[in-house]
Amino acid sequence: MLAPGTGGSLTGIGARMKEVMPKVKIICADPIGSLLSVPDHLNYPPGAGSYLVEGPGHEEVPFTMQRELADHWIKASDPNAFKYARMMTELEGIMAGGCSGAILYAAVEYAKKFKLGKGNKMVVVLTDCIRHYVEKLYSDNWMVEKGLYPWSHLHESDHLLSKIPIKSLNLLKVPLLTPDSTVGDVMQAVKKGAQILPVLNAEGNIIDGVIMKKLMWFIVTNNLKKSDSVQDVWTRDIAVVPYG
User: Fold this and answer.
1) Domain 8-151, CATH number (from 3.40.50.300, 3.40.50.1100, 3.40.50.2300, 3.10.450.50)
2) Which residues are paired to 96 by β-bridges?
3) Measured between alpha carbons, how far apart are the two ends of the chain, in Å?
């Protein structure tokens, strides 16, 4: 069981294993959104797009990869990869990353599909560790922000603030922007103390936002003027928290 990225593990381990054990089956996990799987139709499931798992997958077949060494490919979604990574840590103490989670998920799916039992042997190569992912897939906040957990996952019913209505907090009114706003409008709002400025569409829904800590970087890097569009400084790092 492998999860190819640039192809080193598949080409190296796979080729050697085929020499030593001709009957061995090489099974590969591939993120949904990657284009490495064979046959090609596996790469285009409904809703496929970018993926968050780091390491495996590629948007084109690397020159170093010999895909013909793989006997079977299994697509792994981000939720399944992260679920199995966290399961390894919680249940077995194996502090693995998302790539390893994708591999284990594929191993389980392959075993189910082909009804493998006690008489079969499977070697699962876990290729990453928890080190780079403590603040990513092992963070509930990150999982919620990426849409992998519902916001309710973070709700603490016994928290001291959980019963206080938002309207009673007497919060300062946040200036609102539209896609037609300018950099000058943003700067005026910042002067009044705003740190995060939501951008609303015609229906009143938040579609983006401007963050103070990134504002100056955008302005200096792109040599922006006050008359330039807010779209030149908005960011995708805005999480909308439902309430009510």
Assistant:
1) 3.40.50.1100
2) 129
3) 46
- The pLDDT-based confidence of 45 (bands split at 50, 70, 90) is confident
Domain 161-232 has CATH 3.30.1540.20: no
State the Cα–Cα distance between residues 172 and 169, nearest whole angstrom: 9
Q: Are 126 and 105 in contact (CB under 8 A)?
A: no
Written as six digits, the tokens of 20 are 């030593």
Smallest Cα–Cα separation from 88: which of 135, 52, 138? 138
pLDDT band at 175 (very low <50, low <70, confident <90, very high): confident
**Distance from chain centroid for Cα 212:** 25
* Residue 70 three-state SS: coil
User: Residues for the chain: how many in total?
Assistant: 244
Distance (Å, rounded) from C-alpha 178 to C-alpha 200? 5
Task: Give per-residue pLDDT as tens, 101-152.
Answer: 999 999 999 999 999 998 999 999 999 999 999 999 999 999 998 889 988 8
Q: How far apart are CA 62 and CA 214, in angstroms?
A: 35
Domain spans of the chain, in order of start: 8-151, 161-232
